[in-house]
């Protein structure tokens, strides 16, 4: 499994509009082979929102990046007009997982 962290610096004062637009976007990625889930994270100490995108494999993520659905998602200008800089993508391979043990 891989996790892609998309860091998006949002212009000061545009946070609510960015959140509204992001949460209302067409969820084209949701039906892609290998897609597991997205987590949309709001910053508490800087201006960068982060989307963590979980994928079964790097190949399936790369197929999304080359897909027509991805091109459609990127063609929307809305969120890009609210950014103060470029989006940074960081890919991570999951090599271990630790979870809290819950008592039954």
Q: How would you explain this protein's 3D organization?
A:
The protein is α+β, with helices and mostly antiparallel strands and 104 residues long. 25% of the residues lie in helices and 28% in strands. It contains three helices and four strands. The chain has helices spanning 15-23, 58-66, 68-75; strands spanning 2-9, 35-41, 48-55, 88-93. Strands 2-3-1-4 form a four-stranded antiparallel β-sheet. The chain is globular. The mean pLDDT is 91.
Q: Report the structural category.
A: alpha+beta
Based on DSSP secondary structure assignment, what is the total number of beta strands?
4
Describe the sheet with the most strands. Answer: 4 strands, antiparallel
Query: Helical stretch count?
Result: 3
Q: What percentage of amino acids are in beta strands?
A: 25-35%
Give the proportion of residues in helices: 25-40%
Q: Uncertain regions: pLDDT < 50 for 5+ in a row?
A: none
**SSE string:** EHEEHHE
Task: Compute the separation of the termini in Å.
Answer: 28 Å
* Gyration radius over CA: 15 Å
Strand order within the widest beta sheet: 2-3-1-4
Instruction: Output mean pLDDT.
Output: 91
Shape, per Cα inertia axes: globular
How does the SSE layout of this entry go?
Elements: E1 2-9, H1 15-23, E2 35-41, E3 48-55, H2 58-66, H3 68-75, E4 88-93
What descriptors fit this protein?
single chain; 104 residues; alpha+beta; 28% strand; globular
């Amino acid at each position: 499994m891989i996790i892609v962290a998309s860091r998006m610096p949002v212009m000061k004062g545009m946070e609510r509009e960015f959140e509204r637009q992001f949460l209302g976007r067409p969820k084209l990625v949701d039906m892609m082979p290998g897609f597991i889930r997205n987590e949309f994270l709001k910053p508490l100490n800087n201006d960068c929102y982060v989307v963590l995108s979980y994928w079964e494999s790097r190949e399936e993520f790369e197929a999304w990046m080359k897909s027509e659905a991805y091109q459609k998602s990127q063609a929307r200008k809305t969120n890009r007009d609210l950014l103060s800089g470029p989006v940074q993508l960081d890919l991570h391979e999951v090599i271990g997982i630790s979870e809290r043990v819950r008592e039954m």
